[in-house]
Amino acid sequence: MLELRLFVKEKRKSANLTQKELAEKAGVGLRLVRDLEQGKTNLNMTGVNRVLALFGHELGPINSREAIRYEKS
Predict the structure, then answer these.
(1) What are the domain boundaries of the chain?
(2) By C-alpha distance, which of 2, 1, 8 is closest to 47?
(3) In contact, 44 and 27? CB cutoff 8 Å
(4) Conformation bin of residue 16: beta by default, left when phi > 0, alpha when psi is -120 to 50
(5) CA distance 19 to 73
(6) Residue 70 confidence (pLDDT) above 60
(7) What would the pLDDT profile of 16-47 be if each residue is shown by its tens digit?
(8) pLDDT, the chain, mean
(9) What is the DSSP letter of 41?
(10) Residue closest to 28 by CA, chosen among 17, 44, 39, 41
């Protein structure tokens, strides 16, 4: 699975959107989009989900055991 930052960047580019345009469409600040695409880890989950919703996705909680198992595969 793609890293979140790469997923958002690729989806944004395939939709021919600038970071500013994506932020406006999602109703979030430009800083959030920039930080998201740079892989920053301390982001507002609500804002991230607004961006992801434009592409038909969302973040949600996962079990820590599942995360460890995923990282090993």
Answers:
(1) 4-72
(2) 8
(3) no
(4) left
(5) 32
(6) no
(7) 999 999 999 999 999 999 999 999 989 999 99
(8) 89
(9) S
(10) 44
Distance in Å from the first CA to the final CA of the chain: 11
Placement of tokens 């991230």 in the chain: 48
Residue with tokens 């992801």: 52
Encode 15-27: b = buried (16+ Cβ within 10 Å), e = exposed.
Answer: eebebeebbeebe
- CATH architecture designation of domain 4-72: Orthogonal Bundle (1.10)
Structure tokens at 7: 């997923």
Is residue 33 within 8 Å of residue 43, measured between CB atoms? Answer: no
Q: Which two tokens stand for residue 13?
A: 């580019």
Rounded Cα distance, 53 and 49, in Å = 6
* Residue whose entry in the numeric block shows the structure tokens 């021919």: 16
- What the block records as the tokens of 60 is 């949600």
More confident residue, 62 or 35: 35
Residue 61: the pLDDT is 79
